[in-house]
């Protein structure tokens, strides 16, 4: 009994730690220019690192009080360890002691990670403006491998069916694949799952299992799960849901291959599992990393830029991998970004111009609009309507029946063949009720369909579940006015006896088809949930000289490949496609565009690819008006803190004219200039110290933006552009100044040869402070047609420098 109590006490204190070691990882040993992928060198280094970790842990903790979960060797040199005794936890938390140990650089406690969860290729102009230059859709992205860090994949989905044998020995468009990943088999994931489209698949769950969050009855112990096919899904896959064809889906780069690294589950995930997934993906040789995940909050420490995941992604960039990450779904609150560093492309989400509008025609000729991806009622017949409370047993509680979640209270003879009026109550907001259950209820009782009205106490916010595809006629009247008009008509046509019981149902209506898309041409609009800037430096939410988000892409109501067995959303269980929203949907759009640029320009480094996407992005909608952003209850003109450099434009991104290039050493200089970060903090995080000659400001990093979060008096900033066009070009520079700031740039006109560079000098001078950011832009217009757009974002703190 005593030993059992002691064991329980030790489990209470069990924790997972990520420990970074002083010795080099494989990538850190290579110079920026000299990274090579010699497979034998990688294997030898990996085995050596793993042995060193094992020896160190055994000497420090003793063999019975810990389990090593992972050895990180490729990007970072470190390990994740699950310690299971109080003494071992205290030892790991003794940071000062460990940092004084010769071998240890830093110790981080593990933290939660969460998922930041068709028409879009046409909307982005890809079929006509991009795919033809690659020989068509099937070869667009050929030779590129996109590594997806997410919840897994369904290998049986037609979006991921084999298109050809994966070629590792043949060059395509000047690029030869270097991918060496493996396929891990397991539940629902047979050896045949890697079929040429899926070229690698692994899963990482050791921290999730150690924490007790992995549920074997719910979470597959394999790479199998739900997924999003927007990055590299096959071209022309029919989107059939509940027997209706909603069109044909395609990824942005249909010819690209997919390597899956599952590190997220129904409950979320852990950073140590994600770091292991990233480490493996880069070791395997992916070209693009797509992360529709992020931390649940700003990580602790002197700077968000120094947390373990950001460091892992920094070294991925050094290895030549383009890193794309979701911005987060914390909008419209400011500084809600969960992807922080300048080496990461942080993607915001927008609404596209496709809408699904339902409508109901009343017997009095009124036509009310609402939502509902449902079939119409039969023919042009008008069906009788009945409120749920009027066709239920008298002893049933009104509050229980009005939400139509249970068929038992309904009287079969009264409900059959009628349109049942249900009420959207607060139960729906807290997931204790769902639109799917409404559809199931009306189907089981033999009703003709349903009409969902809004409880006036809820207000006019959009109802949840309006994008769920249903097999029975229905409509959600998701505004108070339409709901009120329906009730007025119903009450005027319903006759009651002296007790108030309905005895005659004369109100009539028919529901029209809600599955046909309408294209408004008004998009893009920044989605309300999309996380906003300004970027933050630390958990105190001090702002940073980094523009976040980076760019914006479609992310609302996206038809995405879905696993019928997925437990992620019961409302769409059993379907192959689902309408999904979130910055997790916007992210693979940008990953797909990056794959196309990589295919066309295989020698470009990650910063050049992202620069091309940023400087060619759109800041106007389809009509030429400024992009708008959804706020809490209104639209307002969007700013770079809503959409970054703008909405991605794939056609122009393939030929940007000029690019801004940053390298690993530049990112180190950036870190050394971050306020509140000292040299030792940088050394512990990165493994190298600050250079003797260091930059004064973070704003000196050579990015395609100029962001200053604290302008005092005057600041000088330099940018270097590289001409990646085929010909020499002459550029003219124009400036639109941010409010409160005078901006001078020199030279204002310059000619630049192919592959040459040009230095641009900025002088930003504070004019007045209005306690808010000002937004401006630098436009470089070339005589060969290139237009390079550079956002300028400044917060004036003081007119006088020290």
What does this protein look like?
- The chain is an alpha/beta fold and 802 residues long.
- The chain folds into four domains: 2-109, no CATH class; 113-353 and 520-656, Rossmann fold (3-Layer(aba) Sandwich), CATH 3.40.50; 356-516, Glucose Oxidase, domain 1; 702-798, Immunoglobulin-like, CATH 2.60.40.2310.
- Helix content is 22%, strand content 27%.
- The protein contains 20 helices and 41 strands.
- The strands form ten sheets. Strands 6, 7, 10, 12, 14, 15, 27, 28, 31 and 32 form a ten-stranded mixed sheet that branches.
- Helix 8 packs parallel to helix 9 (308-318).
- The protein is globular and about 90 Å long.
- The model is unreliable at 1-12, 164-176 and 226-232 (pLDDT under 50).
Give a brief rundown of this model.
22% of the residues lie in helices and 27% in strands.
